[in-house]
């Protein structure tokens, strides 16, 4: 089942097509990555999903029915990259205030605050002002404020910004736990290794158009180049390795990266070394990273590689989500 269905969305600004006939689905409980360089249309998509903008045409379905911003917004939690906290307000009072805006009763909100503050070991921060906290501390408070009302849809923009490795792992584990409990998550980051580690599915957009979408594992399979890394106990000489079944594309100490020839199989690679009595210590396929797929697809469309900082670093306007 899908929590979000995007069907043929269009959004134009004067002559600029910010979103041009984009469709995709976000399954319930999935961790979904929205990828694209600056100006690709990601921010506009998120603003339409959260009801900040209305599409010119197309439809957004939420839980199988037309999205209604007035009612469905309470089922959404949004954590922007730029903090939306009041700097002069005490931490405990602020989270309570934001929880009440989500429609929670005071008693329920206080119970949830107690649960999360104890879990994150930050009870001592309750009477501190936000401006007294480090960026990492603010990030933890923002995360709690975002999930306090148990949203069905959670939108996270650079959730690990400013966090040390220990606290980053803490937030990462909470993301996995929330997903397992049924929360659907849209994950936004410019760190492609985080996309690969965390996301189940992704959609890649550029210049308002969808370039690809699907499961991360399947996309890596779809773009594989039939490369394999073969490790050895003793490095063979080139004459022993030469064969029409594969070509050598990279040499490392005690290893070759080889490209399988058309019509050959992995068994042909292994059989070749076995026939030459060359002991193999390791053998595995090299799949492309999501970063490599991203660069390839955007470059193919535009004729130039995206800027290094151009991936997923747009921040939608802050709202009361």
TrEMBL record:
Superkingdom in the source lineage: Bacteria
Domain ABC transporter: 4-232
Pfam family, one: DrrA1-3_C
Keyword Iron: no
Transmembrane parts of this sequence: none
InterPro entries: AAA+_ATPase, ABC_transporter-like_ATP-bd, ABC_transporter-like_CS, ABC_transporter_ATP-binding, DrrA1/2-like_C, P-loop_NTPase
Alphabetical list of SMART domains matching this protein: AAA
GO MF term list: ATP binding; ATP hydrolysis activity
Keywords: ATP-binding, Nodulation, Nucleotide-binding, Transport
Similarity comment: family membership: Belongs to the ABC transporter superfamily.
Protein name per the record: ATP-binding cassette domain-containing protein
Species, as recorded: Chitinophaga agri
């Amino acid at each position: 089942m899908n929590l979000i269905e995007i069907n043929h969305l269009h959004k134009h600004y004067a002559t600029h097509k910010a979103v041009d006939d984009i469709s995709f689905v976000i399954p319930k409980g999935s961790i979904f990555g929205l990828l694209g360089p600056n100006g690709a249309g990601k921010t506009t998509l998120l603003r339409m999903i959260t009801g900040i903008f209305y599409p010119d045409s197309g439809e957004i379905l939420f839980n199988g029915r037309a999205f209604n911003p007035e009612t469905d917004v309470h089922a959404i939690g949004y954590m922007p990259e730029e903090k939306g906290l009041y700097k002069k307000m005490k931490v405990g009072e602020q989270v309570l205030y934001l929880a009440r805006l989500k429609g929670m009763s005071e008693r329920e909100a206080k119970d949830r605050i107690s649960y999360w503050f104890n879990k994150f070991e930050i009870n001592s921060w309750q009477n501190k002002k936000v401006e007294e906290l480090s960026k990492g501390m603010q990030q933890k408070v923002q995360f709690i404020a975002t999930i306090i009302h148990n949203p069905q849809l959670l939108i996270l923009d650079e959730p690990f910004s400013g966090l040390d490795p220990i606290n980053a792992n803490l937030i990462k584990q909470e993301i996995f736990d929330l997903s397992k409990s049924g929360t659907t998550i849209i994950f936004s980051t410019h760190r492609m290794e985080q996309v690969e580690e965390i996301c189940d599915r992704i959609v890649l957009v550029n210049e308002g158009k969808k370039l690809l979408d699907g499961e991360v594992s399947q996309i890596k399979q779809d773009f594989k180049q039939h490369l394999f890394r073969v490790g050895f106990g003793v490095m063979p000489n080139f004459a022993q390795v030469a064969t029409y079944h594969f070509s050598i594309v990279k040499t490392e100490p005690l290893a070759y990266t080889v490209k399988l020839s058309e019509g050959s199989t992995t068994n042909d690679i292994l059989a070749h070394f076995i026939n030459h009595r060359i002991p193999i210590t390791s053998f595995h396929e090299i799949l492309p990273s999501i970063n490599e797929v991203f660069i390839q697809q955007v470059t193919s469309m535009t004729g130039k590689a995206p800027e290094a900082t151009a991936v997923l670093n747009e921040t939608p306007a802050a709202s009361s989500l």
